[in-house]
Design brief:
Number of domains: 1
CATH topology: Neuraminidase
Distance between the termini: 82 Å
CATH superfamily: TolB, C-terminal domain
Number of helices: 4
Number of strands: 28
Strand order of the largest sheet: 1-21-20-19-18
Strand content: 35-45%
Largest sheet: 5 strands, mixed
Shape: globular
CATH architecture: 6 Propeller
CATH class: Mainly Beta
Radius of gyration: 26 Å
Length: 373
C-alpha cells in the first residue's frame, strides 16, 4: 500500500514538472512582451526605405515646368509667451525633440521650448576667452547623446550640447583661423554619429569628432560654367539616406550627392546673371541676385529656400516673400511654396509638417508655417 501511495505521489510530481516546462519560454522570441514588439515595430516604421541609385550627370531644368503652380502659404507670427525680447543677428536654428536652439551673433545660443517658443536659457558667452564665441553657429548632431553642436566660424572649435544643455569641447577643425579660413554657417553639417562635413573656401571636407585626425577633402565646389563666381552656398546632409545637397547662392544650380561625393547629380536651372565686377567692391556682392539661401534636410525630403531677388531691393522695397522648393533625396523636384515672409534663417521639422523662420522686421521674430501633406 505504501508503494502504491509513493508511486502516485511520484507521478503527480512528474506531471507538475512537465506542466511547468510547458509554461516556460523556450527561446528569446517567446520571451518578448507586447511593449517589445511595439518598440520594434516603431523602429522599423521610423527607418526610411532604401533609396534607388542616384541618377548622375547634369540636367537642364525649367523651374516653372518641373514645379508647376506655386502653393502660396501664410504663416503665423508667434508672440512671445513671456517678457523675453530679442533680435537675432546672423541666426541659424536646430530643432531637437521639444527644443529649438538658435545661434545669434549677440547671444551666442538661445534655447526655446517647442512648440510653445518659451525661452529656456542662453548657452555660452560672447568674447575672446576660453570656451567663448565671437561668431557662433549651431548645427544638428547625429549623435544621440548631444542635442546639437556649437562652433565658432573663425576658431573652428566644436562643442557638443548634452541633454542637460551643458557644453562639452570635442575638437578643433582647423588651426589657422582668420579672414580667409572660416566655417560657413550654412555649410557645416553632421554626416554620421561622430562626423561632420564642412566647407573651407571652395572645398567640402569631412572630419571625425572622436579623434584628432584632420579633416580630408571630399569634393570641390568649383564648376567651369561658373567662372570666377564665389563658391558660396548652402549644404544639407542626411546620413540615413547617404545623401548631401549643395545649392549655390549666385547661380540656380543644385548638386545632389552621396556622402562621399562619388555620385553627383547636378540640376541646372540656367539662371545666374552674376557680375564679376562686384567682387572688387565693398558689399558689392549684394548687388547680385541671391538664388539659394538654405538647404533644410528632413527624413524623407529636402527643402531649399530661394530668394530670386537682389538683397538691396528686399530691404529698400520691403519685398518680404520667398520660395521654398521641395525635392526627394534623389534630386527629383516635387513642389514649390511661395512664402509671405523673407528670411535667411529657417528650419523644417523632421516630419516635414512645419516650417519655422525668423523675420527681422517683426518685434517677435518667430513665424510658423504649416506645410500641407
Amino acid at each position: 500500500m505504501h508503494k502504491i501511495f509513493f508511486s502516485l505521489l511520484l507521478l503527480a510530481w512528474l506531471l507538475m514538472a512537465c506542466s511547468g516546462k510547458k509554461n516556460a519560454p523556450t527561446n528569446p522570441e517567446a520571451a518578448s512582451t507586447p511593449s517589445d514588439t511595439t518598440a520594434l515595430a516603431q523602429t522599423v516604421a521610423d527607418s526610411p526605405a532604401p533609396l534607388p541609385p542616384l541618377e548622375t550627370g547634369e540636367f537642364t531644368l525649367d523651374d516653372e515646368k518641373v514645379f508647376g503652380k506655386d502653393i502660396e502659404l501664410t504663416g503665423t507670427n508667434i508672440v512671445e509667451p513671456d517678457t523675453f525680447i530679442f533680435k537675432p543677428t546672423g541666426p541659424r536654428m536646430v530643432l531637437n525633440d521639444n527644443l529649438l536652439i538658435l545661434s545669434s551673433w549677440n547671444a551666442p545660443f538661445y534655447v526655446f521650448t517647442q512648440p510653445g517658443f518659451k525661452y529656456v536659457k542662453t548657452i555660452g558667452r560672447m568674447g575672446n576667452g576660453p570656451d567663448e564665441f565671437n561668431s557662433p553657429v549651431v548645427f544638428p548632431s547625429d549623435d544621440p547623446q548631444y542635442v546639437c553642436y556649437l562652433t565658432d566660424q573663425y576658431l573652428g572649435k566644436v562643442y557638443g550640447v548634452d541633454k542637460d544643455l551643458n557644453m562639452h569641447f570635442l575638437k578643433r577643425l582647423f588651426d589657422d583661423g582668420g579672414v580667409s579660413t572660416y566655417l560657413d554657417r550654412e555649410t557645416t553639417c553632421p554626416s554620421g554619429r561622430d562626423t561632420v562635413t564642412y566647407q573651407l573656401k571652395s572645398t567640402l571636407y569631412r572630419a571625425s569628432l572622436s579623434d584628432s585626425t584632420p579633416g580630408h577633402k571630399i569634393h570641390s565646389l568649383q564648376m567651369k560654367s561658373l567662372g570666377n563666381m564665389p563658391f558660396i552656398g548652402a549644404l544639407g546632409t542626411n546620413a540615413e539616406r547617404n545623401r548631401m545637397v549643395f545649392a549655390y547662392k549666385y547661380a540656380k544650380i543644385v548638386k545632389f550627392m552621396d556622402l562621399e561625393a562619388r555620385q553627383v547629380r547636378i540640376l541646372n536651372f540656367q539662371k545666374s546673371g552674376f557680375d564679376e565686377g562686384t567682387m572688387h567692391k565693398v558689399d558689392g556682392l549684394d548687388a547680385n541676385m541671391t538664388h539659394y539661401m538654405q538647404v533644410l534636410p528632413t527624413r524623407d525630403y529636402v527643402f531649399l529656400t530661394y530668394s530670386g531677388q537682389v538683397p538691396y531691393d528686399v530691404g529698400k522695397d520691403k519685398k518680404y516673400f520667398m520660395w521654398v522648393e521641395q525635392y526627394d533625396w534623389n534630386g527629383n523636384p516635387i513642389r514649390r511654396f511661395k512664402i509671405k515672409d523673407f528670411s535667411i534663417n529657417a528650419i523644417v521639422s523632421r516630419d516635414a509638417s512645419r516650417l519655422i523662420l525668423t523675420a527681422y522686421y517683426y518685434d517677435d521674430p518667430f513665424v510658423v508655417y504649416d506645410l500641407p501633406e
